[in-house]
Amino acid sequence: MEKTHNLVVRDIASHEVITCLETETVQKAAQLMSDADIGSIVITKNDKPIGIITERDIVVRVVAVGKDPKNILVKDIMTSPLIVVEPNTTITDAMRLMAKSNIRRLVILNNGELYGIISSRDIIKVSPSLIEILIEMASSSQIVYDKYPESSVAGICDGCGLWSDSLIEVDGLMLCESCREEQIEE
Q: 3-class DSSP state for residue 3?
């Protein structure tokens, strides 16, 4: 495996993705998930991934509202369009996208074909090493900031809590480019 700070999603992704046709019932999808001991299933149409269903989707969109999973098709409750990344997407970028999209899983496509899936749990497995690297980088960035306070630095954004290589102080907060843009829009 590569050094942790160079990790890309293909390094930690699951390549055995369970899929289900969009015309299957929620019960069938739930059974596939149970058999494979997984928390999500990718929904396909014409062998192309078009959506995803998670355990939470089944609970919230079917069970909690009293619908019969035998009579509901997966296409009616799936989350679509998919939020996807490519195999060479960095773990940091994947974490940012997950946080920004408020999701816990990303489907990985390679040239439009299903390549794998990565979950927040997969990232957590490698996170102790990532945290150590972030701490080292943040402490060296603080030295740069103390010497050159007008320049951007790397560290944890006070707005979104994610790592950024280009933090700039705005109203006493160290903000990444995305959070600075959001603050301008407000």
A: coil
Q: Which two tokens stand for residue 82?
A: 């998919």
pLDDT one-digit tens code per residue, 128-150: 666 666 566 555 544 444 444 45
CA distances from 45 to 16, 21, 22, 117 (A): 18, 6, 6, 18
Query: In the β-sheet with 153-156, what is the strand arrangement from edge to edge?
Result: 153-156, 163-170, 173-175
Q: Cis peptide leading into 81, omega within 30 of 0?
A: yes
Could you give the CA distance from residue 39 to residue 140 in angstroms, rounded to a whole number? Answer: 39
- Best CA proximity match to 80, nearest among 55, 101, 62, 53: 53
Crossing angle between the packed helical segments 91-101 and 120-147, to the nearest 10 degrees: 100
Q: Is the pLDDT of residue 3 over 70?
A: no
pLDDT at 66 over 80: yes
Q: Which domains does the chain have, with CATH numbers?
A: 4-123 (3.10.580.10), 128-185 (no CATH)
When mean pLDDT is compared across 38-42, 94-98, 151-155, the lowest value belongs to 151-155
DSSP label at residue 62: I
Counting runs of H as helices and runs of E as strands, what totals does the chain give? Answer: 6, 9
DSSP reduced 3-state for 73: strand
Gyration radius (Cα) of the chain, Å: 20
